[in-house]
TrEMBL record:
Span of domain NADPH-dependent FMN reductase-like: 1-149
The entry's keywords: Flavoprotein, FMN, Oxidoreductase
Gene Ontology MF annotations: oxidoreductase activity
Residue ranges crossing the lipid bilayer per the database entry: none
Native source species: Actinorhabdospora filicis
Protein name as catalogued: Oxidoreductase
Length: 202
């Protein structure tokens, strides 16, 4: 299986890249068999993404990354929080991907920020975006504030390592359930008579 982690961190080293790496490792640990893991740093493709937005044509390097993402069995998408939302670079990358290319694709969403006050970015920005793209978003999303690295959690919030582990298990479960299936296009319509027959059997 192929797992691609997309990191929109701008600095090097980057806490966003570190979170992407740890989520990828947790997902790999939850999968049986060989898993090919690739981490994509969007900052290396910033100019290519901007040019694609203007011209409508991706460079060879960007096309190769887009193909890797759309052909993966699972995706980890991690962004830093800018102005209470995902970064422009993160959004621009997913904007240049055809909006049906992620249909039925398992996606784990995550974000990093300086304060826990921005943790709802996962629910008000990232989850709706991937729902629009008709991806299957893992139930556990991970937000890592500065104090989470090395923090001990509290009575309500688990530690960052435990959240990463749970999110990795979620994505691994989705990938295992969907791997080997045909690529999904438009939703298949089940005839009404067939639906009734299934109800009678149960």
């Amino acid at each position: 299986m192929k797992l691609v982690a997309v990191s929109a961190g701008l600095s090097s080293p980057s806490s966003t890249r570190l979170l992407a790496d740890r989520l990828a490792e947790a997902t790999r640990a939850g999968l049986d068999g060989d898993v090919e893991v690739r981490v994509v740093e969007l900052r290396d493709l910033a100019v290519d993404i901007a040019n694609n937005m203007v011209t409508g044509f991706p460079s060879a390097a960007l096309r190769e990354v887009i193909d890797a993402v759309t052909e993966a069995d699972g995706i980890i998408a991690v962004t830093p929080v800018f102005t209470a939302s995902y970064s422009g670079l993160f959004k621009s990358f997913f904007d240049v991907i055809e909006n049906t290319a992620l249909t039925g694709k398992p996606v784990l969403i995550a974000a990093t920020g300086g304060t826990a006050r921005h943790s709802l970015v996962l629910e008000h920005a990232l989850r709706p975006m991937f729902a629009y793209l008709r991806a299957i978003v893992a139930p556990t999303a991970v937000y890592a504030a500065s104090e989470d690295w090395g923090g001990s959690g509290d009575a309500i919030t688990d530690t960052l390592p435990s959240r990463i582990e749970r999110a990795g298990r979620d994505l691994a479960g989705l990938m295992s359930g969907l791997s080997g299936t045909a690529k999904r296009g438009e939703d298949e319509v089940v005839p009404f008579a067939e639906q009734l027959a299934a109800l009678r059997k149960s």
